[in-house]
Amino acid sequence: MSSPARRDAGRAGIGSLPGFPWDRLIPYKRTASAHPGGIVDLSVGTPVDPSPPLLRQALADASDAPGYPQVHGTPQLREAVARWFERRRGVSGLDPDGVMPTIGSKELVAWLPALLGLGPGDRVGIPAIAYPTYDVGARIAGAEPVIVDGLAAFGPPGQGRTPRLLWVNSPGNPTGKVLGTGHLAKVVSWARANDVIVASDECYAELDWRAGAGPRGSSVPSILDPAVCGGDHTGLLAVYSLSKQSNLAGYRAAFVAGDVTLVRSLVEVRKHAGMIMPAPVQAALCAALGDDEHVAVQRERYRHRRQVLLPAITGAGFRVTDSEAGLYLWASRDEDCWDSVQALAGLGIMVAPGAFYGAAGQRHVRIALTATDERIAAAAERLSAL
């Protein structure tokens, strides 16, 4: 029989977490896999294109790494992140001490509330339609995840309703919605008035499909943009990953940047926990941040796939909303998402049900662009049957 302490630990940890949502797709995957033309899996945003040779070479060149790497990252890497923010995101004055590499962005999302010291009695604000790991991260820390439909709903400070940490996500996953400069500025102003940390997940910022978005830097504003925060990064953290734009999902290459005091605190905790990006990956990340050409090439691959898939989806009776940026089409046939999943599985096409991203997504599905040109073309052809 387990002890009371062990039972309590289970309730606070694994016992408080939801089941892994993608396990529910197994029977639909069996259906899709039985299609004579094979499955087209558009349910998970996993890159399928080769990692760029330049980055693979940088990894190989740094592979002789007998010593322990730095949790804070090398000075060269932190400076490369600061330069990238200025060149690609319009963020000037980012202190390299306010940069830390992470082992992919998901681990930081999942552990940030705990790393910041949040726990029982604390609240973490998350979007109504959101990446599930925001919710999971709050639960791992023992905090309460709360859906944020509007900041006014929290009322005046001091009533125990205001979160200590607020997540924003732009471009959004799964919706592809982009939050404008004015919207983000209001969030920052409110957060500072209420002593709330804002963490901004910006991983899809380089994949902007809106008219006028060009290759010379993202037009998606960062939470660290001077027009958003007045050049003051206090209380702000921007989370970024190179998994999508550089095909480095297998490298787990990401970083967090912003408030120097907060980042130093994260570094100290992670030193104790041994949460360190391997030195060869730090070198590859540094090389990736200094090269814009491979990002432009990958962006055009996704643009082409989107141009093939989008008219096929709408022609099959789906309405695509938002989807302004990122790797997904957020689509609805005004029916329960699982009915859409089943119908598409019958065509050999796997998509993610909107219910994975919150109750507000119950009548949508998320359709990823992360498949080869051949598989995207096969999906478009099959959709004509609908």
- How much of the sequence lies in strands comes to 5-15%
In percent, how helical is the residue content?
25-40%
Strand line-up of the largest beta sheet: 2-8-7-6-5-3-4
Mean pLDDT: 92
Number of helices: 13
Question: How do the helices and strands follow one another from N- to C-terminus?
Answer: HHEHHEHEHEEHEHEEHHHEEHEEEH
Number of strand elements: 13
Describe the largest sheet.
7 strands, mixed
Which structural class do the helices and strands define? alpha/beta
Q: Could you tell me how far the N terminus lies from the C terminus, measured between alpha carbons in angstroms?
A: 55 Å
- Report the radius of gyration as a whole number of Å: 21 Å
Low-confidence stretches: 1-12
Shape assignment: globular
Structure keywords:
386 residues; alpha/beta; seven-stranded mixed sheet; four-stranded antiparallel sheet; 13 helices; 14% strand; disordered N terminus
Write a structural description.
The protein has 386 residues and is an alpha/beta fold. The protein has helices spanning 4-12, 26-33, 53-61, 75-89, 105-115, 132-140, 181-193, 226-229, 260-273, 279-289, 293-315, 337-345, 373-383, and strands spanning 40-41, 99-103, 123-127, 144-148, 165-169, 197-201, 236-241, 253-258, 319-321, 328-332, 349-350, 352-353, 365-368. α3 (53-61) runs antiparallel to α10 (279-289) and α11 (293-315) packs parallel to α13 (373-383). The chain is globular and about 55 Å long.
Summarize the structure.
The protein is built from 13 helices and 13 strands.
